[in-house]
Amino acid sequence: MPRHSSRPPTRGSADDDDLVDKAEKQFAKGFDRPPSIRPRTGVEVTESEEGVDRSRASRRSDEISESVAPPRLPIVQMDPEEPPSLSRRLLVWGGVAVPVLAGLGFILTRPGCSPFSNANAPIHGAFRSKHLGVQLEFDDGWMHDETKDDHEDASGWDRRVSIFFRGTSSSDFSSQLVLAVFSRKDKRATTEDANQLGAAETLGVILSRRCEPYAHPRGEQGTLCNGLTVRGAQRLAAVEAYFPVDGRAVFARFLLEMPPMMGPVGVDAASLQRGDPLLEALNRKIDDAVTMLGTIRTLA
Questions:
Q1: N or C: which end of the chain has fewer CB within 10 A?
Q2: How many helices and strands, by DSSP H and E, does the chain display?
Q3: pLDDT tens figures, 142-195
């Protein structure tokens, strides 16, 4: 009676079938496991598509071809970039040139703002200030802080200011001069105008303040005041004067550093003992300041 096997029939030679049948008989007689059955060398194993659905085989072939060769991408032809037009070039250059020229103009109109210039210009002898419209005489050691030049409208008057000093800077000095000049196109300044404008410029805190009439060599009658003031730990003698010169009102304030052994603040310098060398040094500074006031005159 023929024996039926549950395994599907395999394609091979008759000798291979005999080997399989022999191995099954030996395993049935009590072997722990069937002996190894290896196909003889030289046997060609080929892949068969028998029993495989045609649509599945076709789909598998398509999948393999798609994985190997990716789909082609369309080639886009790029037009060469056109050069910018003349109007566009002018617009770009204009956008760059305008701020550069504006910054250059600001530096030229304010020399103290230039990184290549020294804001503290040394001065000696006759100094002609186009900003103030006046000239005056300076001794050795004075400097002009050009960054502090300013002008504004003051009740219809054109007020222009400059600061001069001796020392390290206009804020760290042994002597300082603040000079303000007032002018109007429709009016010449009088003594009354100078008194009103000058009184608004004076320091609010001056100890032992004394004022007296002052006659400028080229102007009308004015006012000269002196006293003592404090700036931080620095004690200063203050000399203020206001007077008209050639139709303009002038205000000048000198701050002069006092010697350290001059006594407590609030002591009138005139009340100190005459002949004291410290007092004489301070008096010389005050006399020099008053002499400088007499050299002020308007530019021709």
A1: N
A2: 5, 9
A3: 999 999 999 999 989 999 999 999 999 999 999 999 999 999 999 999 999 999
User: Which amino acid is located at 231 in the chain?
Assistant: R
- Computed on alpha carbons and rounded to an integer, the radius of gyration of the chain in Å comes to 53
Q: Are 34 and 24 in contact (CB under 8 A)?
A: yes
- Residue 290 token pair: 């008053």
Q: How many residues belong to the chain?
A: 300
pTM of the model: 0.59
**By the 8 A CB rule, do 154 and 197 touch?**
yes
Nearest to 154 by CA among 198, 110, 101: 198
Give the helix/strand (H/E) hosting 230: strand 221-231
Domains of the chain, each with CATH number or no CATH: 119-298 (3.40.1000.10)
Q: Measured between alpha carbons, how far is 237 from 1 in angstroms, rounded to an integer?
A: 144
For the chain, the three-class secondary structure string (H helix, E strand, C coil) is: CCCCCCCCCCCCCHHHHHHHHHHHHHHHCCCCCCCCCCCCCCCCCCCCCCCCCHHHHHHHHHHHHHHHCCCCCCCCCCCCCCCCCHHHHHHHHHHHHHHHHHHHHHHHHCHHHCCCCCCEEEEEEEEEECCCCEEEEEEEEEEEEEEEEEEEEECCEEEEEEEEEEEEECCEEEEEEEEEEEECCCCCCCHHHHHHHHHCCCCCCCEEEEEEEEECCCECEEEEEEEEEEECCEEEEEEEEEEEECCEEEEEEEEEECCCCCCCCCCCHHHCCCCCHHHHHHHHHHHHHHHHHHCCEECC
pLDDT digit string, tens, across residues 33-80:
555 555 555 555 455 555 555 655 555 555 544 445 556 666 655 555
